[in-house]
Each structure stands twice: as structure tokens, then as C-alpha cells.
Design goal:
Elements (H helix, E strand, L loop, with lengths): L9 H4 L1 H11 L3 E3 H8 L3 H13 L3 E8 L2 E8 L1 H23 L29 E2 L5 E2 L1
Antiparallel strand pairs: 1-3, 2-3, 4-5
């Protein structure tokens, strides 16, 4: 029997791509700018993740105009919806395994402790503030 982690899909599991699929799975089509803002990604970074998801046929990308403004809309495909569901199933099984495992906190042994010498040195001393002829304070 293999461990559930073997069922994770590398294309889907990456945090940003999983976020894209999570957002898309609950909607019809989503505008690029919304995804960028919601996931906290740069336009270039998001574009790279969308290209990978599109190449895997998990999403479609549609470019067009809303009024005079160019827009990019992203839609999840049936394969993308299934890949997202499969990923959630694997993640749930991992959580179940973790919940079923007994939790035994491990106390560090003093014998195993590594002594690290302090390299901090003496505390830094701030130089006194100096006023210039124009009254500007430096420092």
C-alpha cells in the first residue's frame, strides 16, 4: 500500500496553482486581476502558473475587452475541477492520518543540546545627533 502523499499532483499541489484552482472551482470565470490580487502574485508570476495549468488542460484562458479595457478571464475545465477534487481528497486523507497518529511531544535532552557561542558582541552605541548650520538634525 502506498502512502497518500504519492497521490499529490505536482502540477496542482504548488501553492499558487492550488489557489487558482480553489478560486476557480467556486465560480464561473474569474478575471486575471482578481486572481493576481487574491493570491498576492505579480502579473508575471501568475501568468507563468496559468500557462502551466493551461498546458495541463486544467484551465482555459480567454482574452477580450470589457468596454475599452483589455481583460483576461480564466475558467476551470472539467479536468481541472476533477484534479482539484482529487487533490482535496488526498489532502483530507493526509489530515486524517495526522489526526489518527498519537501526539507525543518530544522534550529536548540537555545531553543533546548544542552550545552555540554568542557572536552578538557588545550592544551597538548610537552616535549622538548633530545639528547642521541650517538646523537639520543628522543621525
Amino acid at each position: 500500500m502506498t502512502h497518500p502523499v504519492a497521490g499529490l499532483d505536482d502540477v496542482v499541489h504548488q501553492r499558487s496553482r492550488l489557489g487558482v484552482l480553489a478560486i476557480l472551482s467556486s465560480g464561473d470565470r474569474v478575471e486575471f486581476g482578481y486572481l493576481r490580487q487574491a493570491l498576492g502574485l505579480s502579473a508575471g508570476n501568475l501568468s507563468g502558473h496559468l500557462a502551466m495549468l493551461a498546458q495541463a488542460r486544467l484551465i482555459t484562458i480567454e482574452k477580450g475587452y470589457q468596454g475599452r479595457r483589455p481583460r483576461t478571464w480564466v475558467t476551470i475545465t472539467p479536468a481541472g475541477r476533477q484534479a482539484y477534487r482529487d487533490e482535496m481528497t488526498v489532502l483530507r486523507s493526509l489530515v486524517s492520518l495526522a489526526d489518527a497518529a498519537p501526539f507525543e511531544p518530544v522534550e529536548p535532552s540537555t545531553d543533546d543540546a548544542v552550545q552555540v557561542p554568542s557572536t552578538a558582541g557588545p550592544p551597538a552605541v548610537e552616535p549622538p545627533a548633530v545639528r547642521t548650520e541650517s538646523g537639520v538634525r543628522l543621525g
